[in-house]
Amino acid sequence: MKSLEELAAIRDKMQNVVNLRSEASDCTRIVVGMATCGIAAGARPVLKAFSDGIQEKGIKDVMVIQEGCIGLCQYEPVVEVITPGKEKVTYVNMTSEKAAEVIEQHIIGGNVVTKYTINSAM
Amino acid sequence: MFPEISLNILDVVQNSICARASLVEITVSIDTTADTLTVIIMDDGCGMSEAELSRAVDPFYTTRTTRKYGFGVPFFKAASEMTGGSFEISSEEGEGTYIKAVFVLSHIDRMPLGDMTGTLISLINANCRIDFSYNYSVDEKRFSLDTRQLRAILGSVPLNIPEVTGYITRYLEENTAEVNGGIKY
Hints:
A: alpha+beta, Glutaredoxin, 39% helix, globular, B: 6 helices
């Protein structure tokens, strides 16, 4: 049985390295819809792609959060990117591949991937 | 309907999150003698009144404002009942809600348990203010994961950094495999 001792070692290593997550007010929030419609359409791998991607690239001041129904069930999986001071961006019909692109171009690069937004879908 | 039980669990736990739970306990126990797979989800959220509780299993009842239907609880109930199993839900306003779904293990319509690791990692990483306690057992073999214990060890180190997510993933996968003893549920 894998035990918890390894975790103590991780704590010792990361204690001084980790910059504690700043409070929600200055973070960019990546909100993944996780209601029944979202889950059925494949939101779990999309959440994983964002969560893993943010972690791997060590992107700071970004929080990945789950939400319930956003009200756009036919466009699920839906991901909203909310950056303080900027207009909310709603990505629709998301997949884990598109998530990787959004991380690269929007989260890191600052350019909205318009072809995946709801404005392009409608 | 979902192709695996782990997605039903991910869905129903969203209700606990909406109910502002601070602790969600998820138990999956497989009993090969009784031929059952039982899922219990218990939270300490705001709970429901008797009127709300009586309508919780109705797909046309929901407290959200974006749509007029809610399938999470009804789907979970249908999934367990179509295997010849059972479903119960109880709640106490101000205390929390309790759900127990019993699936008949060998029934052809019993969908696989699926990727519980994926569901748990999603929940832990996207809800940093909520604690999750997971208990998994197949007959006498069991293991558990409690984020309160993890936080106690990690101190100021957050749960959703790669090193910790990697650790939790391996912990869940290895322990699940050991308890399963080679069988995929």
